[in-house]
Structures
1.
Amino acid sequence: MQAEEQAHITLQVYDTQTHSIRPFKPLEKGIVRMYVCGPTVYDNAHVGHARSQIAFDIIRRVLEYFGYKVYYVSNYTDIDDKMINRANEEGISVPELAKRIIRSVEDDFRSLGILPPTIRPKATEHIDDMVEIVKGLIDKGYAYVKESGVYFRVQKFENYGKMTNFNLEESQSVEEDGNPLEKEHRADFALMKKSKEGEPYWETPWGRMRPGWHIECSAMSMHYLGETLDIHGGGQDLAFPHHVNEIAQSEAYTGKKFSNYFLHNGFVTINKEKMSKSLKNFFTIKEVLQRFDGDTLRLFMLQAHYRKPLEYSKEGLEEAENQMKRFKTTLEQLVARTQKKGHFKKSKALEKLAEKGVMYENQFAKALANDFNTPEALSVLHSFVKDINNTIRKETENDGTFWVDISLRYKRMLSVLGLFEQTEETSETFSGLMDLLLQIRQQARSEKNWEMADHIRDQLKSLGIVLEDVKGTTVWKRQ
């Protein structure tokens, strides 16, 4: 989309901090600093992880589509209780476990068409940053040292838990380990934990310690993006306690607002329950990719608004698969059309389609500018595909240059959604081969070699490709 076409569109996002839709305005014109909490790498990623990664990949792509330079940081949590427990179960070290799972997770993310972040730091690479923050919090009276670790004083931080309407006086301990009676308040959370015998540790001013979960993301986000972020994101389940605690410790340390916007994606559910390892109702990304390709899983995710729950089902994936076939057929047909050369006049039908292309992309952009509304954007894309295919069936004698603008718009819309980006070269090769086969079949027909012509048609049909003879020429489509 051209800059002049975007000028009248205002990007609006839902901010969890204010529980409202707000116009998006970055701290620095044209630049977005975004941090998204990544996975804890103790096991293979499941479909719930895929949703968060795809949601924020789309948000990043939309921001870039609207002309922003995005500095996107998303981490790996490679030290915590789950990591230690799983490594002990397998009889390996925590770093060995992290290395294996990170490799697995990155393979999954590539299969889903997720763009690599600007940087993917590991928590263990930033222990020194965490120690410095904790020192500062102690100096300012926001943290205190106990035998079991270093804790944050939630009562000292004004409006603690405001984002999630957390009631401090009615709270229970949110710590999974350590003696809550040792803390000054039951909701105080660990910044550093004393390492037990056999656990990984780092030498700190308070003894042999390992970091708490929340301090990791504050340290990494501020290290790479500064003390105030434009966007902080993650799954809905991270809003409390993780993001609430990040806000408290970060703002207490810097005296500045931690993030101007907080965005949270909804859960993937099975039978209306959140998909999670703890409930043992999950499917790994690898399991799903054994049956469906990455684009299909991605499209399935985009059919629900990123903030809404998404019910996982095989039927939903199959429907997404059918839609992907239609998108792919249209892409292949457009690629084939742009490669045709001749001396034909531009028809009124093509002129009308080119005008509609501008309209459709404008509607598409407005949908995405409305808090990244992918279901609405997909609806626009389906309408564009319908008009493209209707015109292709009617207009067969056109020079490929007449289709270039339409093709570029369609590819651009697909790219914003992250679809087919890894298959375009294959698609062009496939379309070239199809054109060659159609030429051979047309030559056979002109020589009245009906047996050869029918053989090519029947073999292609067995591969799911149907030929249609329209106005003296032959077009193809996927069945």
Note: The chain has two domains: 3-311, 325-478.
2.
Amino acid sequence: MQTTHSITKLFVLAMLCLVSFHLNAEPATEKIGEVVFTRGAVSAKSISGEIRVLGKKAPIHQGDVITSGPKSFAVLSMIDGSRFSIRPDSVFSFENYSLKENEESAVMRLFKGGLRAVSGLISKRNPDAFKLNTTVATIGIRGTDFDARLCETDCAIDQKKYKEKRQTLADDAIAKIAFMKGDVYTLYTGGAKIKLEPGSALFEGDTVETAEGSFAVIVFKDEGRVTLKENSQFKIEELNYSPDKPEENSAVLRLIKGGMRALTGFIGKKNKDAYKVKTPTATIGIRGTGYDLLWSGPCSAGAQVCGLSGSVWQGSIFAKNDAGEFDLLENQAFQIRFIDEPASIIDVPPVLDIPRPDEVDINFEDLFAEEEDDDVPSGLYVNTREGKVYIERDGEFIEMVPGEGGFVSTDGTLFVKLERPKAFQENDPYLQTINEEFETLFELLDETVIEQNEFECIVQ
């Protein structure tokens, strides 16, 4: 009986696939975008009432209502370069979308579910033209990247799931971003980057990169701290910390490029030999607590500003390379140009225009505290990823910057800014698909995939 039922479902879906090719081949006017990727059952209903099953490269037209089924999602690319990632069980429409000069408009409506939007040329020409209407409020943008979700009981279920996952990750974290300015990333093999934010967890093996005009303060579980200057790369090669077993603690860090200001924590205080910072021309050990390092690049091709330089502002450190081991005392500055060259004392310390990590006000207990349970009432949740986003209801506005969220209850009685998005917003894998290589995302659905030319069906 089960086999017959499965064959029947397979036949119906196969027919839908064939019908979709026929419908997609029919000419249509006012094309405003196309499908980049779909997985599962995703359809579009036109103004005339025609329903099309959407596959790759299927056109999106003015007035289309997009519907995604359970465990189904889609990514759309619009004529102005905007992108939309539509999550499962969502209904979303394009009410008015125009790139015509002086008539720019991107007005959408979310009836159900959720989406993520990265805006394009329309919002750059006229930020007031980009709006997402919902049953409880209107969302506008002054930037480029946000997501929104209309929640019933589904978000509370996701909140519990993602919160447990996030807490597990937090328990495994060896450091966190305590404070930052600008753009800060974690680098992965192959060049992939994940953008970080205040509170982001870091793990053994992570490489942190700061962009132009940016800096970050990293706090480790042993209460050590590092401030990274702009255009820097810093790797946490090893960090083991157990308060009850100081003899087993260790910290091996690497300054790949740029500069850092460091304040050692309990690892360095309890077992100084277990703390090391590797650089291209020397390995730095400690006899004290506070120091600066700046790597200016290799001394080749007649470079004058090059090599490793640094200074000690608290305690003492030592530098070790092929030329030997050199003690560097408090208030001393030094330079090491080559790996086989001894450290030389210099008069002027390197300039690192970033705060000393001990001068940044950080509540360590709050940073590493276990998250408390919180409710997820029904309503509209918005998460700002880049730029500025506002929510408007009955003439009232809430403006949000990156890292902030907003909430409007279904009945409109609660209209508040969230200092941090909910776990279900931050960890939603369907919304991460917006900038991914989509052919690698089969793991989002634990189903059998049938590929037919450029259309893909899911057999459930």
Note: The CA atoms of residues 18 and 243 lie 64 Å apart.
